[in-house]
C-alpha cells in the first residue's frame, strides 16, 4: 500500500511539469504581447523603447529554454509575478480570493452529497417506484438546465419576489443558499445516476445472494457492503468536480457577484492580465491532480477489491 501511494505521488510531478510546459507554450503562442498588455493595463501608451524595456524586465528577450526553467523555478517558490492591473503579487490575490471559492465549492458538494447519496441508493433499491421516477426526473432536469439560467430564476423568485435571500455578495449563511443550490443541482443529477447504476450492478453480484443465504440482515448487506462498494464511481466523479469547483465556479460567481477566484480569472481575461491567467492554469491543473489523488486513496479503503489489486501489483 505504501509503495503504491509513493508511486502515485511521484507520478504527480511529471504531470504538473507538463501542465506548466503546456501553459508556457500557450502563452508564448498567444498573439498578446505581455509587455504591451502590461502597458495597456497601466494606461501607458506603448512605444518601442518602453516595449523593449518591459520585455527585458520580464525576461522575454532570453532563450525560451531559460524562460521555461525560470518559470518553473518561480512557480515552485509560489512566485507568479505581479498582476498587471493591481500591481500586487498574484499569489496574494489568490490567497485573498480563493477562500470564497473554497467555501462555495464545499457547500455545493455537501448539498449534492446529502441529496444524491440517499436518493440514488433508494431509487436503486426500490427500482421503478415513485421515488425512482422522481430521481430520474430530477437527474434529467439537473443535467439539462443551464446554471446561469437557474441562477437567475432563483434570484428572481427567492431574492426579488420573496425577499428571502440576498441577491449578491458573500457574508452570512444566507448568501450561500442560492449559489450552492445552483451549483449542486447539476452535481446531484450526475451523482444520483452514477450511484443508482452502481447499486443496481452490485445487487446482481454473488456476494449479495451469499449474504442473504447466510442470514445476514438486509440493512447490513445494503449499507456495509453494497453502498460501500457502489459509492466508488461517485467518488471518482466527486474528485473531478471538486477540482473544477475549487478552481472557480466561473459562471455562478459572475451571476451572484461572488468575490471568488473564478470571477477574478474572468476579469483577468478581459484585462489581458497574463500573470493571473498563468497562475489560474497552473493552480487548476494542480488542484485537479491533487483532488483525484485524494479520491483514489479514499477508494483504496472503501473498496477492498481495489486494495487487493493494489497490493498484488505493488
Automatic annotation (TrEMBL):
The protein, known as: Nickel import system permease protein NikB
Keywords in alphabetical order: Cell membrane, Ion transport, Membrane, Nickel, Nickel transport, Transmembrane, Transmembrane helix, Transport
Record text on subunit structure and interactions: The complex is composed of two ATP-binding proteins (NikD and NikE), two transmembrane proteins (NikB and NikC) and a solute-binding protein (NikA).
Xref: CDD domains: TM_PBP2
Pfam family, one: BPD_transp_1_N
Transmembrane feature ranges: 9-29, 104-125, 137-160, 172-191, 280-302
Principal location class: membrane
Domain ABC transmembrane type-1: 98-299
Provenance organism: Planococcus dechangensis
Family statement drawn from the similarity comment of this UniProt entry: Belongs to the binding-protein-dependent transport system permease family. OppBC subfamily.
Membrane topology: Multi-pass membrane protein
InterPro entries, sorted: BPD_transp_1_N, MetI-like, MetI-like_sf, Nickel_NikB, Opp2B
Localization (cell): Cell membrane
SUPFAM superfamilies for this protein: MetI-like (SSF161098)
Source taxonomy: Bacteria, Bacillati, Bacillota, Bacilli, Bacillales
